[in-house]
Amino acid sequence: MADYEASTRVDAPAGQLFDYLADPHNLTAYVTRLSAAEPLDDDLVRVTADRGGAEVSGDAWVRVDADARSLAWGLTGSDDYSGQLEVREDGPASVVTVRVRTVRAARDQVRDGVDGTLRRI
Asked: Which value, in Å, is the radius of gyration of the alpha carbons in the chain?
């Protein structure tokens, strides 16, 4: 199993940043390897991602807690991949923390994906 957590500071107000990150239409702009994200209903998103040179599509659940500025996700029907993104205020800026847990990928792959996502944010 690979668990990874990393944070970055972003020069944007926490509320504004979280609103952007929590919108499923924006996922492909910052989640590495994700090439498509189509909201299906309140907490279900059809995603397409590059997994080692092959495009894979599936449904993911996405739960937004606006009060806590937290976004959680995972693959439907699977306990082997989930993640969480949190945004907190840091003066006039924000700190974004991403956590991922998976049994599918090696720790280096998870770290590279999280670090790439934080750089794009």
From this structure: 14
Contact at 8 Å (CB) between 121 and 11? no
**Can you tell me the distance from the alpha carbon of 98 to that of 31, in angstroms, rounded to the nearest whole number?**
11
How far apart are the C-alpha atoms of 44 and 103, rounded to whole Å? 22
Report whether pLDDT(78) > 70.
Answer: no
- The answer to whether 63 and 74 have CB atoms below 8 angstroms apart is no
Of 95, 94, 93, 75, nearest to 83 (Cα)? Answer: 75
Sheet with 81-90, edge to edge strand ranges: 2-10, 93-102, 81-90, 70-75, 54-65, 44-51, 34-41
Give the contacts of 94 (CB within 8 A, at least 6 positions apart). Answer: 9, 10, 12, 13, 14, 17, 18, 87, 88
* Res. 109: pLDDT tops 80: no
Mean of the per-residue pLDDT values for the chain? 90
Look at strands 34-41 and 44-51 and give their pairing.
antiparallel
